[in-house]
Predict the structure of FGGY-family carbohydrate kinase.
Amino acid sequence: MNAKESIVNGKAALGIEFGSTRIKAVLVDENCKALAVGSYQWENQLVDGVWTYSLEAIHTGLQACYKALAEKVQGQYGVPLKKLASLGISAMMHGYMAFNEKDELLVPFRTWRNTMTEEAAAKLTQEFQVNVPERYSISHLYQAVLRKEPHVKDIAFFTTLAGYIHWQLTGEKVLGVGDASGMFPIDCSTKDYDKEKLAKFDKLVEEYHFPWTLKDILPKSLTAGEKAGVLTEAGAKMLDPTGTLEAGVPMCPPEGDAGTGMVATNSVKVRTGNVSAGTSVFAMIVMEKALKNLHTEIDLVTTPAGDLVAMVHCNNCTSDINTWVNLFEEFAEAAGMKIDRGQLFDLLFKKALEGEPDCGGLLSYNYFSGESITGFDEGRPLFVRHANDKVSLGNFMRVHLFTALGALKNGLDILLKEEKVPVDKIYGHGGFFTVPGAGQKIMAAAMNTPVSVMDTASEGGAWGIAVLAQYLVTGAGKDLADYLDQEVFAGQTGTTLEPDAADVKGFDDFLVRYNKGLAIERAAVESI
């Protein structure tokens, strides 16, 4: 069946993912080959000290992204997008969206980027004896309890961004287990919330006499391949106000960007891992067994199938790089030169490969927001050097690529060197890897392990959730890892780069300087 027939006959699956700065939609055929892509740019807002997106922005972004995709389909294939085989929603994990019995949002959406939950996260980590990071939904809920926020008693349901959108489209209050694991710890033997820890939380808040138990207000956890409802008439109208899209589309469990990243890189098998590097950066490795010790730098989540994953997550990655690229772009325009933005990224990233292995002594921090791994509630991007350090373009760009992985490297050293978690394959995806070979080479140096980038990596999590949507209707009961190997990635190619010894040593030398210089970053936070 060709692409046009696949679309007309309703055999194509659609995935939509809400990233930090872009909402992206990918339509795929029965073999998960991308047929059309649409996107919409958006930005979070800092309102009263809270990073948030308004409900209006969420709904507007969803419709605009879908409209862009539908127009691409009409333009490329000459047919309207009326029928879908299946549909999936993905979004940034964690955060806090709490609703009352009237389905009203009680407080503005608190995204993963907020780090005001330090007290709650520390207390829950101690109580559960597993790491509960500041960005997790349960940390936000418990911090609201500790602050005695009046809305808490009125909560009837709380969820993530993906869970909210899925709920609006289907009426179902469910969540994929991978996204659910970023709300509350999961018991991988049951693929559901850990009952013992649920009871411990209820005991913790017993004195407040809330009219709910935690289990009552959490979304139901589902694994990949399970039915998660259908697109309702109201949902279809919300997604496509023109009324062209037909309702009744089966929907897969809504997932977080970590889970879709694993799918997009074929990294759901034990001893495989992936690094997703964009606005934030996280590395995930599917584990054979639990970690020996509790580490506050390591998060425990799951694959969309419910298998245990160790994650190192950092809030900051490419935002500061984008700022510097913007500056170079402005300079070029002021000099009367018009350089394509993609070519500019290509030029600057490749210059980083010409820099000295340790960046010539330069140091920078990309902390747009706090970074829990290194102990920061707030951040201040900065660049610092000795007077006699060599400020070449190569060294300058190299240090900004290095520092994008600085906090991540600290967490990975615990996972790989201290816990000795075995890894056979690492796959990279996200904006950091857009320029062929550049980000990949730097990542191989940071991890001291081969890093592969698949040809499909540029499609990212939106393609990953489209694959999960197609898996729902064409998986035929196959294990998710087998489905990916045999149906999706069979015959696909990519590139693998081995770590260069000089680069590895250079990154290690840089990391010593990075960790010692954290005092400078702390002074910047306190002084500016």
